[in-house]
């Protein structure tokens, strides 16, 4: 097997999260409350691409948005997920 090289594009992921939140009608305040944050700075950092949600927060975000984590993250790399179904 060959090595797989992937990286998460922070800025593009932030833009994607912003669009997904807008589509669902959620505000930064809504996300702050769902996450249990005292202030919204972490959410604003995600949206601006300055940081990424932790794995736990990404999981909560995926449930909130009804999306998979892979649908939320913008991945850079040559690896493509292939789903094989056997019946």
From TrEMBL:
Domain HTH cro/C1-type, first and last residues per copy: 17-72
Protein name: XRE family transcriptional regulator
Pfam families, per the entry: HTH_3 (PF01381)
Listed InterPro entries: Cro/C1-type_HTH (IPR001387), Lambda_DNA-bd_dom_sf (IPR010982)
SMART domains: HTH_XRE (SM00530)
SUPFAM superfamilies hit by this protein: lambda repressor-like DNA-binding domains
GO MF, one example: DNA binding
Alphabetical list of CDD domains matching this protein: HTH_XRE
């Amino acid at each position: 097997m060959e090595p797989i090289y992937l990286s998460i594009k922070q800025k593009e992921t932030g833009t994607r999260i912003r669009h997904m939140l807008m589509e669902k009608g959620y505000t930064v305040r809504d996300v702050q409350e769902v996450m249990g944050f005292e202030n919204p700075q972490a959410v604003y950092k995600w949206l601006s691409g300055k940081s990424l949600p932790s794995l736990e927060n990404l999981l909560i975000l995926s449930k909130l948005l009804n999306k998979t984590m892979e649908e939320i993250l913008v991945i850079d790399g040559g690896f493509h997920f292939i789903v094989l179904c056997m019946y």
